[in-house]
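Sample intake sheet
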Amino acid sequence: MLLNYIKIAIRNLMRQKMFSFINITGLACGLAICILILLWIQDEYNYDRFNENAERIYRVDFTYLYNGTEKQHWRTPTPMASAIKEKYPEIENAVCFHNEGLVLVAANDKAIKFQPGYSTQEMFEIFTFDFLYGDESSALTKPDAIVLSRETSETLFGEINPVGQVIDVNRQFDMTVTGVIDDLPANSHLQFDFLVPMSIMSDITGYPADDWGDFGYNTFVLLKDGAEIAQVEKDINAFMDELIYELGRKFYLQPLVDIHLYQLDGTLGAMLYVYVFSSIALFILLMACINFMNLSTVRSVKRAREIGVRKLAGARRNQLRAQFIGESLLMSFLSLLFAIGIAELLTPFFNDITGKELGLSSLSGSLVLLIVGITAFTGLVAGIYPAFLLSSFDPLETLKGNGRKSMTTFRKALVIFQFALATALIFCTTVIVRQLRYAQNYDLGFSKENVLYLPLNISYVEKLESLKEELLHIPEVSSVTTTSSKLGLGPKWSIGVRGWEGNEEGEMSLPIITGDKDFLQTFGLQVVQGDFHRKSAYEEDEPFGYVLNESALRLTGLEDPIGKKYADGVIVGVVRDFNYWSIHNPLQPLGILAIPEWDNYIAMKFNTADLDGFISKVEVVSQKFAPDFPFEYSFLDADYEMSYHRESQLSKLLYGFSALAILISCLGLFGMASFMTQQRTKEIGIRKVLGATVGGITLLLTKTFSKWVVISIVLALPAAWLLMQKWLENFAYKTPVGIGTFLLSGFLSLFIAVATVSFHSVTTAMSSPIKALKYE
């Protein structure tokens, strides 16, 4: 009996080739995208979970009141780890870690910049590292020790064991290799190319390694089994209150496995995109499943008379149901086989867009079971409806063609829901692309075009004034400045300000960007009051000079601020507000100070269309002053665009997903249109004989589908608008979603639907009425 069912199923597939192709292809595309997105979600969710003690590792962060009411979130000072480890027994271990910037590493006549990691021996006791060479128990105990990643080791030394080799770090230190660890997984937020002791960080970076007032470092704690998080947080806060008391400050523990997925304030980080991609996968899979079920019911209607004959011949209901469900399951698992092939082909493109290295081989067992379960469920549901409905019909009524009305209603509902999902995707894609363009073209209040950055190194610093003069001799360069940060990407520093003239008890948190007297000209900032050119740095006989933006000045309440006392100095200038963050963030207070020790970059304004020639001239100057360092540069506008990398990824993926959603919907409409025009072939023949035109018949056949699509548009657009309003909350400045966006999305959906249906409609309308009347 089973073999007979399989034979019948294969015959039906071969007899209705077009329906079989459309059904299998549609579901295969949906399953393929579902597989790729599940791979991506699996990778995101597994961030840092490779650590054996991942569930007991926490990062210490803190929150404090900003300007009295707003919360700010930050990290911790470097000495905290060792202090709390010794004081509280619930903390099994603790470590401080920092990995900012790039550092020049030289060995074997090779000099390459790598990302450093600064830490202590406890790093290997808390986190899981696979040591290839060296002793894990003592690898970072000596002050001149350096531990390399596999890739760094192979780049510098090839395949040999490098333990004991000497490496020049930053043209300042000779460090001895004490170990090599396997490369960290890509889904780890702890990324570095080598590890050196925290004690030498201040010599390399200029940042103090033992400053209780510098809250810019990561402190990780490994808690003992059964430790109460709330009690540990209470202990840490009590300890810090003894050292540095600040009103409104609170330390808290963030689980290691949440760091990638959530922001410091607990709001969604990468988790937002996990939800977005999960929703997209669900939408597309739903559309594919609806398509599959819809066309399965269409095929079953065409076999109604066959079922009637079988029932009259003695077939029992259970046998008919088993046959329908079996055929549906066969088609769904054929779709899964095709889906695996499609996913394999699309994986390189998907990885290129997402920046990951995913592969089908990395699918976990639970995800494989989930995909198989989805496939089986789809086949089961698609087969159950026609199986139970048709098998329940009276055979004589079935042979007369009755019983189709309820199935037509069912198909209408499925088509409307399917196109509603497609329309929603089109709308969301349109909004996201518009917001991305809006962000790229938004007036930030400073000039980001034609600004070149050179990262500072020790050779530059020693001859900085001469280097700036030499760069200014390049004809294309109009100004040169030094600074701590890349504008538009946020400041690296923030200081606590207490007291100013007229309000000695006032306090605020002030983000800081450093800049010398040429900072204003280089970035096109506007001075509102005072003199930006006055040197605003520590002098023996002069107070510290602050240049504030308008937002910072408003918080002081001063109307005539120049020369007035401000914290440990005076206000020397005021500049117009500008967005020193991306437009994800609103305008905030800012101080601009001339502190050479905090500078990280040389920035120059240039004017030329010959970028290659200009960069060559800058390189000549760079190599003259720093011959031992590789030449590096970046453009501010390109760096700024990278701050919208996730949005850019999302827009590219949505382009593809929307196209696929439309394809799946069109496949369904194509199959439905083919079926319905075949059903009305004789009617069309009669209408043509009576004088109906091709245009009139085409309109008759398309208007039914058009009504369905219009209903789906009306249902989809409000829901999609609400979803996009929620997504736009991630931006302080956002593009308006006007009536044009609604009209464009609705028109595209309607046009695509009508164009798809019209193919069959026009073909049928133009056919000979003689052939139509002879149909069947």
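Comment: Residues 403-407 have pLDDT under 50 and may be disordered. DSSP finds 24 helices and 24 strands in the chain.
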